[in-house]
Amino acid sequence: MSNYRCARIVANMSLLTLRNVCKEVGHRMLLSDVNFSLERGEMIGLQGLNGSGKTTLLRVMAGLSRPTQGTIEVLGQPITASVRKTIGVVFQESMLYGDLTVRENLLYYAKLYHLTNPQDHVDLWLEKVHLSLDADEITKTLSKGMRQRVSIARALLPKPQILLLDEPFDGLDARHTLLAESWFDGLVNEGSGVIFVSHDENQVIKLATRRVTIDGGYLLQGGLT
Amino acid sequence: MYLRSLWVLTSKDLAVEFRTKTLFVSAVTFAFLLLVLLGFSVSGWSMYEVHSLPSVLWVLIFIAGYLGLNRQDDKERWDGALLGALMAPMDRSVIFYARVLSNTLFMLLVELVLVPMFMLVLRQSVPQVPMLFILATLLCTLSFMALGTFLTSVASASNLREIVVPILLFPLAIPLFLAVQTITQAVWYASGLGLLTAWWAVLGGYAVLFLVLPGLLFEILVEV
């Protein structure tokens, strides 16, 4: 197969594909026969009531939770260690160490993702999230909004191709909400794909290129493109 | 790449512990208080009972170690910190080995304070075969921390982890305890050293088993 053809296949390949994914815990079906794909340049707004399966779906997509049935592919491959590099997440937990400073936390992640010149990446993102002056603060002393900004910086540090966001604007003020929206938009314009959960209808209308609704573990609309 | 990730995770654990000292302080304080209580009752003991005291040292170390493991786990679970490591592009067994390494280093530090404290409070002599005592301590600490780290990591997502971990940890550690207490008693008084082959095998076997098996199962068990 020529390099040109390979490149075209990769370019056309879905970023993320879920086929017949089910997740059962005990006797409770959290996800039922979910078929879903995320394409390059898409920003999907995932909506649903509390307990409808949004967070479970994001965790399964991130490879943090194994589906009981079905397959998940990232760029046509099952989720492995090397594939995880392409996935960034902002979940309801900040995934930060409370006893480390903001800078130490970001540096830790930059090193875990084997970024070259990790300190430069960290300095850049500290500036972007307006936390340069608080870089040496212990993370657990920060406000929720500040911690959320660090969490967003953590997720965007390795420039992921797939970004999974669970209530990413939670705790952010208006200024930083706009800023975060512009970063996510920027990623989408560069060919990445974003899936975000938000209960704010206006935000979903404003940002999403496609809306997906989940209820009782079933995708009601907008699954496969 | 594997070793680099191992170092990043271990150095993070060391940075957190040197800043907070929670594992060290809680384990040493708890062991010291137990030691003092024990000291009150030892005065009435017979010579035979006093000779079994070195094995009591391991009861203190096991309990202090369990306490330390719990503290460490609390830090990993705070605001989903462990999830971040699980998302990183590396073999997830690195997380297990890094935690074992840092927990073992912290526990060895605790023992460095606890053993002289034990000798001082309970008026015990220095071990007569110190090199063998050090070897047994290293092997037992590594095995116990590997077993404990594995169980706390696996039970981390469970609401019943505070019950499940000790219920599994202490019974599973019984052969380890029997081996290390027999060896410690023998090397402390330099008696019956030739009869320890089987106990050394148990100690070594535990170290191999609980370093290899959890490493293979870690990825499957943490992704629930």
Features:
heterodimer, A: 225 residues, alpha/beta, 6-stranded mixed beta sheet, 8 helices, B: 10 helices, 83% helix
Strands of chain A, total number: 9
Strand content of chain A: 15-25%
Number of separate helices of chain B: 10
Beta-strand residue percentage of chain B: under 5%
What's the gyration radius of chain B in Å?
18 Å
The run of helices and strands of chain B is HHHHHHHHHH
Query: Could you report the average pLDDT of chain A, rounded to the nearest whole number?
Result: 90
Taking pLDDT < 50 over at least 5 consecutive residues as the criterion, the unreliable ranges of chain B are none
Mean pLDDT of chain B: 89
The percent of residues in helical segments of chain B reads: over 70%
Structural class of chain B: mainly alpha
Greatest chain-chain contact: A-B, 32 and 27 residues
Distance between the termini of chain A: 27 Å
Topology pattern of chain A, helix = H, strand = E: HEEEHEHEHHHEHEHEE
Give a description of the structure.
The complex is a heterodimer of chains A (225) and B (224). Chain A is of the alpha/beta class. Chain A has a six-stranded mixed beta sheet with strand order 5-6-7-3-8-9, sandwiched between helices. Chain A has eight helices and nine strands. The longest helix of chain B is centred in the middle third of the chain and has 29 residues, at 93-121. In chain B, helix 2 (22-42) runs parallel beside helix 6 (93-121) and helix 9 (174-189) runs antiparallel to helix 10 (197-222). The model of chain B has no long low-confidence stretch (mean pLDDT 89). With 224 residues, chain B is mostly helical. The two termini of chain B are 26 Å apart. The chains are: A alpha/beta (225), B mainly alpha (224). The interface between A and B is medium-sized, with 32 and 27 residues.
